[in-house]
């Protein structure tokens, strides 16, 4: 009854104040636009608005910041689908199937799948946040280094099934990603490693320049080569965003539910965030698919899985922020500034002393996910008109936009060098038919796996058996081993069938 009473009060407050709805709309639009532009991301969008919230009521300010967070998480998928250029790190996985679907002439459908999955994942995460914030926060505290290591392994073990028929090429690409993740300062000893004497590489390979180079720049180089050969490219003239039908959504129900749950759980874990959620959501979709070889060719499951996961993580990441005062992601870390600027300290007492604020945030996030559907369709449709422009004009614009966004991120020239180098390397991988997805997964999850394993080893006095037999970690590692063997066996059977068919 207390929950219903709090909701009724908060809903009445929002309903009868038009300014709140205006701020929600502006926040969603602002977030989608910042998500669309490579290098800007929702973190920048939230950070830029925090000073303006000082003139607003705390509830009004946090409603707007929450709406920006929701909108930006979806916005990154628009440029990812249309140009193979993730607007935000959490949209990197969406490129793997979203862009191929757009190249087949179904750009509007691909954006519709991403938008529908984003709304479903976001609503699921927010509802879980409303019902289970305190108990989920306690569960998150039970996740030690061993569990974080197992979680990373769970995502990494799917690399053998992604992007190519060659298990060897997938594994090698994944190992390259893990290798790139070791560049920079040792996370525990602060010793420089693999930086080739460059002080600018001490911070490591920044993820945003890496994905923009591997996806966007590599694609521009590839398309330029195709244009020179005189090929007619299908740029996807259909620019009208089409939401999936109820029948299509129902056919994807397992993928949507699985990724929404994965995203919410990972969002609850402090410091992990939507990017990791999207990659693990995608990896698990591949792992449990009956036809994993189809991923990377433009299948709907490859779009809805990462999008439901990364938007589910938005609601999940608010759990440790509101319940414990611990940011669940980089964006919620910035949002702490929006709370403290009004003298509000997030933590266990927040839900007791500021119930109106907390319930208003809940309702605002529900409303933002619904508003995102309407404004996402409008913005994506206008953004997609760029596809009608000849690629010889669009390609250079993409490069300039990417370079501007990457440099603006940290004002670091090395980020530009990383983007250009990995762009050329990504193009080479495509030419040699090596998948990029495993490399990106290795780059994202490698640091999580390394530092968590080393911390776990220190805590157990370097007893590896104790690390892998810890209950939560042991369960996830067992799932990883069984599913990896099953996936490799399935690929082996498919390869034998192809050989028999070729021999027959």
Please name the defining characteristics of this protein:
single chain; mainly alpha; two-stranded antiparallel ribbon; 74% helix
Give a brief outline of the structure.
Helices cover 74% and strands 1% of the residues. It has 504 residues and is mostly helical. It has a two-stranded antiparallel ribbon with strand order 1-2.
Describe this structure in words.
It is a single chain. The protein has helices at 2-15, 18-36, 41-53, 58-83, 94-103, 107-141, 145-156, 167-180, 207-228, 246-251, 253-268, 273-287, 301-324, 330-340, 350-353, 355-384, 391-410, 413-431, 437-459, 464-468, 471-503, and strands spanning 184-185, 192-193. It is mostly helical and 504 residues long. It has one domain. The chain has a two-stranded antiparallel sheet. A hairpin with a 6-residue loop joins strand 1 (184-185) and strand 2. The radius of gyration is 22 Å and the shape is globular.
Helix-strand pattern:
HHHHHHHHEEHHHHHHHHHHHHH
In which order are the strands of the major sheet placed? 1-2
- What's the Cα radius of gyration? 22 Å
Helicity range? over 70%
The total beta strand count reads 2
Shape: globular
How far is the N terminus from the C terminus? 70 Å
| Total domain modules | 1
The number of helical segments is 21
Low-pLDDT stretches are 227-238
Q: Largest sheet, described in full?
A: 2 strands, antiparallel
Structural class: mainly alpha
Mean pLDDT: 79
Strand content: under 5%
